[in-house]
Design goal:
mainly alpha, rod-shaped
């Protein structure tokens, strides 16, 4: 009888050691997963910081572009106001005050070029404003996505850490 008890005890010890070994490898696997997640979270943090720096730099560029656009807009408004207040010369006035047909054509061509220039400046101003808004929105969206990724990784790490605590 005592031989059977000894064999059962040996088997039980062997079984416990196997179980202990399995548990150790499971904990090691969890530790590895936790370390990988920590590295991933660190990388996401770095990515977020880089994106924030990019956003700050782009924000500065946008503010400069906005200042340039505002200046162009003010210049254009002033020019149009001047033309309006000084009574932009009519073609008849241009014709009557011209020394020759060549002079008239030069003056009328200049008037057309000025209004075309103003139209082009206005279109460029509008396009620049739209570009500024689009760029800003895109960067804010990218930052939001990175923040969501970081939060998800953080949650995953908490879960793994909790598993490690439980198993330990």
């Amino acid at each position: 009888g005592s031989e059977r008890v000894r064999i059962r005890l040996k088997n039980k010890i062997k079984e416990l050691e196997t179980s202990k070994s399995n548990l150790k490898s499971y904990i090691a696997k969890l530790d590895k997963e936790a370390n990988e997640l920590a590295a991933e979270i660190q990388k996401l943090g770095d990515d977020i910081e880089a994106k924030k720096a990019e956003i700050a730099a782009t924000q500065e560029e946008l503010e400069e572009a906005q200042a340039v656009a505002d200046k162009q807009y003010e210049d254009m408004k002033a020019r149009i106001q001047y033309l309006y207040e000084s009574g932009s010369p009519s073609y008849l006035t241009l014709f009557l005050t011209s020394d020759s047909m060549g002079d008239f054509l030069n003056k009328s061509s200049y008037a057309v070029q000025m209004s075309q220039y103003d139209r082009n400046m206005l279109n460029a101003y509008i396009a620049q404003k739209e570009q500024i808004e689009e760029t800003k929105a895109m960067l804010e969206e990218e930052e939001e996505e990175l923040n969501l990724l970081a939060e998800a990784a953080e949650e995953q790490k908490k879960t793994v850490d909790a598993l490690i605590q439980t198993k330990t």
